[in-house]
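Input.
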Amino acid sequence: MKKIDVNKTLEEIDGEVWDDPGKTTKLIRTCHELRKVPLKDLTADNLRLMIGQKLNLEHLVPLALGILAKDPFVETQFYRGDLLAYVLKNTNEEFWNQHHDLYLELDEVMSVVKQTFEELSPLLNHFNPYQIE
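Output.
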C-alpha cells in the first residue's frame, strides 16, 4: 500500500473540495470539517465518525488500525472497543481483498482480541456479582 502523508488533509489527498453543506445535520457538517484537518490531527473519535459514514476508508482505516494495534479496545465516544466495532461494521470483504496489507494488520488486532476473550471467558462463567459474602 502507498504510504499516506499524514500532514495532508483528505481534501488534499483526493483532490476533492466538497461544497459548503449549508443548513444540514451536525454529522454532515462535522464530516465536511474533518476533511480539512491534517490526518495526523484526527482523533480516534474523528476516525470512528468518518469510518462510520464509510468515507475515505482507504486513508482512514490504516490510521484506525495504528490506534487499534496499541489498544484494540480503545473507546472513542460510545463504549470500549467502539473504534474496532466501526472498522469491522463499515468494511467488507471487497475492501479487505483490495487492501490485503491492512487485512494482515487487522488480523493481528483480532488475534489480541480473541486471546483476551479466550483468557477471560472461563473467568466470566464463574463470576457472579451478587454472591457476596
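Residues 10-126 form one domain.
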